[in-house]
Request: fold
Amino acid sequence: MNINGVELRWLGHSGFLIKNSKTIYIDPYNIKEDSEKADIILLTHSHYDHCSVADIEKIVQEGTKIISPADCQSKITRFDVPIEMHVIEAGQEVDFGNIKISVLPAYNTDKPFHSQDEGWVGYLIKMKGVIVYHAGDTDVIPEMQKLTGHNKSGKEFVALLPIGGRFTMSVEEAVEAAKIIKPTLAVPMHYASIIGSEADAKEFVELCKEEGINAQIIEKS
Reply:
């Protein structure tokens, strides 16, 4: 999918590739062996399906910047090439010139899998013409209220929202999140791998449309 000159690909589960002047991966998991090398890798938390050393090894190159919460650090310190680690927490912003990345909280409110105390995160990636919010593994949380204004920035505002249920939001909860965030485009993720189905993704799109929210499935690449 091309949005204002920014390429957005879904890699399966919660993994995405964003390409403009840089090649940015978010939570790569079960990606292809010949995947292109990364300039920036964003990791939301240390669970194996979000911080996969085997997949990160496929895409690191000398100077790759890896941004992650502290508990990912011990898993990703041994690669054959020198990388640049940025250990972050919610509330911080990382500035790479024409790409600015804000770090946002991601947590469960009524489940034990992603405690707020862990300090796990989602990301708001700001580029020329496009803002992408990757929610991480989260429920509907109060901090989402702060995202609403980005749909008035003059940029396309894309929200990547988990829909699989059990560990994250259900389809219905993800629609509620989209209603709060008000993106110009909502995209489902965290399905068709460990939990959640293509039917869930289709239901999410339909329910969003009933609420007047533009939503679309990105086919896996």
Q: What stands out?
A: DSSP finds three helices and 13 strands in the chain. The domain at 2-210 is CATH 3.60.15.10 (Metallo-beta-lactamase; Chain A). The radius of gyration is 16 Å.
